[in-house]
Structures are given as C-alpha cells and as structure tokens.
C-alpha cells in the first residue's frame, strides 16, 4: 500500500513464504550434512514426507522425486510400456508433459481441448483406440470429465496417469484428484500451492508400479528396504531396471512438510479469491470465466478467462499491453511469444496435425496468477485493471 493509502499493484510472482517450522529442521540438516534421503536408517525427512503425503491424499504409496516432470516420466516407465507406445495427452498443457512422454520413448498423441480448457471428449474417444496409455493434464487446475475418461479407459484396459501439478486439493465427485487414475503426479515448484522451489511426488495404490518407480528413481543396492511395505516387489526388480537418479533430497522435504497442514486453508482461500475476481470479470460482456464441471471442487491459485465476442489479434495484444500498463500481467496463451503452453511451439515433437479447436481457444484464453496470500484490496485491484484494460480497447 502506498503512503497515501492507495492499493499498489500486487506482486503476483512472489512465491508462498517458507514456514518458520522448516527453518530449525533445515539448520539441523545443514549442521549434520545429512542431506541424502537414504543416509539415515529410517525416518529421513523424505521418507516422512512420503508417508504424510500419502495420508493426505488417501493413497497407499507415495514417492518423492526431483520434479513433477520426473514423476510423470517415472510413471510412464513404471507402466512398462513398449517403445513407441502411444500416449494421449491434452493439447493444452505445459511443454514438460509431452517432453516426459518423449523421454519415456513413447509418442504423444494430442487431443483437442475446448474453450472451457478441458479435454474434448468426442476427440478423446475417437483417438483412444490404439492408445497404450493416457496422461490427463488438469491444466491450471481445470479438471476434465474424469468420470467419462475413466469409463472409456477402464473399458479398454488403458491406464491413466493424472498430471495434477496444478490440482493439489482439488476434489472430483468426492475423490481427490491424483487418486482417480493409476498414478497421480504433483509439483512443489515455487508457483504451486506448496513451494519448495523444485520437487515433485507421485502417488499410487499399485504396489508393482510403486516398486518399479522406486528402483528407477535411484534406490540402488538395498536402499529400497527403506520404503516400507514393498520389499518383495522391490527385491524382484533390483538390478533389472535402469536407475535414473531422480531422488528428492532431505532439504526439499524439510521445506515441504510444514506446508502440508496448510494445504486445506490455502485451497479454501484460493477458491474464494478466484470466485471473487471471477464474479467481477463475468459481469463484463467481453470476458468469460468458464464454470467448473458439476463434480469439481477446484483449488485454484490463478484465474483463466476468455476474450469473448469479436476480438482481433491486435485488439487482444492491445488488451495485454493495457493491463500491463495498469500494473497487472495478463498472458494470452497463444499470443505470448514462445509460450510453452501453446502446442505449436513444441517443435521437438516434429510435424503435428493442427488442432483448430485448441488453437482458437489459446488465441483468446487469458491467464493471471492469484496467489492465495492476496487480500481483497489486491484482488479488486487486479479485477479493476483487467476491466479497465478491456474498456481501453473496447470502449
């Protein structure tokens, strides 16, 4: 707040602060030098995190790794898919998702996404025959129709991996996102609900998937014995699988663990923040925040909205610039140079068929961060800047 009492533009790029409870444990770890997850005979911070996270999600097993991208990659490898296996992914996601498929020696098949940011079920059903796996990315926390997806995949015997990087705390029909498919993968990168700078974790109820992922994550020799309940399966896979060494280290776990009890409060605050801003944006004829699907209880820390009606590319760019001049950064996904969420920028995939529905959505879909720490005055500043930018362009 300025000295004259005016609300200043909030810095939405600051991450969630690290709780005081983490600092004493970090100091202890630094003094001991005990940073490797397998040094202690038991109860290492990473092992404790895995148990606590599994309990939080209601899953049987959790494996903490270096990033959500690592978790996605290990999930695919743990499914023991053949080289060149086809993996369906939404065409609206972050570049790390198709990258994880490529790293796993599989082939991404992009599925159309509608203007509500969710998988187009007609295109999904048409492309499912011949697929070996599905990786559903709940992009920016928007949950695709998991009932329809699971019904089709279960009938075809096709495993589903959930990329829940943006969805910690989201509930679908009473079930926690990340626990509906075979595997769920989460992120602790700084812009997520839990901030560790970097880090990820995967959850599953399947003991064979868990054991294979543990070995490949880097549980060499007999370190797998420090993962309770999986000794028989891990012993079977020891030395039969490659080691990718994607482990999490103890300092990251020490930062994450005190934040887990805060997740419920952050989810509640994030949902209230989102809905407060959404109500103001939806009152404008030129903007639309898509409604959640019926079974979905979201856990947002950002807001997405569409420019609706007649907008030229030049007008959409002018809107971005006008919002920035008012102190708020708005990203139109398809108009931001080199955006890693625009499928046509994933040149590492080689030539791909065009996806007109997803392309049209990305050219008018806008993205604004709403960290859960923002207060009502700051939220109103953001909404006012967006509405003012629309007025600047549309009159």
Please state the overall shape, judged from the principal axes of the Cα atoms.
Answer: globular
Structure class: alpha/beta
Euclidean distance between termini CA atoms = 29 Å
CATH topology of the largest domain: Aspartate Aminotransferase, domain 2
Low-confidence stretches are none
Neighbour order of strands in the largest sheet: 1-9-8-5-4-2-3
Estimated radius of gyration: 22 Å
The name of the CATH superfamily of the largest domain reads Type I PLP-dependent aspartate aminotransferase-like (Major domain)
Describe this structure in words.
This protein folds into two domains: 241 residues, Type I PLP-dependent aspartate aminotransferase-like (Major domain) (Aspartate Aminotransferase, domain 2), CATH 3.40.640.10; 133 residues, Aspartate Aminotransferase, domain 1 (Alpha-Beta Complex), CATH 3.90.1150.10. It has 395 residues and is an alpha/beta fold. α4 links the parallel β2 and β3. The strands form three sheets. It has a seven-stranded mixed sheet, sandwiched between helices. Strands 10-12-14-13 form a four-stranded antiparallel sheet. The two termini are 29 Å apart. The radius of gyration is 22 Å and the shape is globular. α1 packs antiparallel against α9. The mean pLDDT is 95. It has 13 helices and 14 strands.
């Amino acid at each position: 707040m300025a000295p004259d009492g005016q609300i200043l533009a909030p810095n939405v790029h600051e991450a969630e602060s690290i709780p005081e409870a983490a600092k004493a444990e970090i100091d202890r770890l630094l003094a001991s030098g005990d940073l490797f997850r397998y040094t202690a005979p038991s109860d290492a911070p990473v092992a404790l995190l895995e148990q606590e996270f599994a309990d939080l999600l209601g899953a049987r097993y959790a494996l903490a790794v270096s990033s959500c991208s690592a978790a996605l990659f290990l999930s695919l490898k743990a499914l023991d898919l053949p080289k060149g296996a086809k993996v369906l992914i939404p065409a609206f996601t972050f570049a790390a998702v198709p990258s994880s498929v490529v790293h796993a020696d599989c082939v991404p098949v992009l599925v159309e996404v509608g203007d509500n940011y969710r998988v187009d079920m007609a295109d999904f059903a048409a492309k499912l025959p011949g697929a070996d796996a599905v990786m559903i990315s709940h992009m920016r926390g928007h949950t695709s129709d998991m009932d329809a997806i699971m019904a089709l995949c279960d009938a075809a015997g096709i495993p589903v991996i959930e990329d829940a990087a943006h969805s910690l705390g989201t509930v679908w029909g009473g079930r926690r996102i990340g626990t509906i498919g075979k595997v769920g993968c989460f992120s602790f990168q700084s812009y997520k609900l839990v901030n560790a700078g970097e880090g990820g974790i995967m959850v599953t109820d399947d003991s064979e998937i868990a054991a294979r992922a543990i070995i490949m994550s880097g549980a060499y020799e007999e370190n797998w014995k420090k993962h309770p309940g999986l000794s028989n399966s891990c012993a079977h896979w020891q030395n039969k699988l490659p080691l990718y060494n994607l482990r999490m280290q103890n300092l990251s776990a020490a930062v994450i663990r005190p934040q887990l009890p805060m997740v419920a409060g952050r989810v509640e605050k994030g949902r209230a923040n989102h809905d407060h801003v959404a109500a103001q944006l939806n009152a404008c004829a030129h903007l639309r925040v898509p409604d959640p699907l019926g079974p979905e209880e979201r856990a947002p820390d950002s807001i997405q909205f569409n420019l609706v009606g007649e907008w030229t590319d030049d007008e959409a760019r002018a809107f971005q610039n006008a919002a920035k001049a008012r102190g708020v950064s708005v990203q139109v996904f398809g108009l931001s140079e080199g955006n890693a969420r625009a499928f046509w920028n994933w040149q590492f995939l080689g030539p791909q068929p065009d996806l007109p529905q997803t392309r049209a959505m990305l050219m008018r879909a806008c993205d604004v961060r709403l960290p859960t720490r923002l207060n009502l005055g700051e939220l109103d500043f953001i909404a006012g800047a967006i509405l003012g930018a629309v007025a600047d362009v549309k009159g």
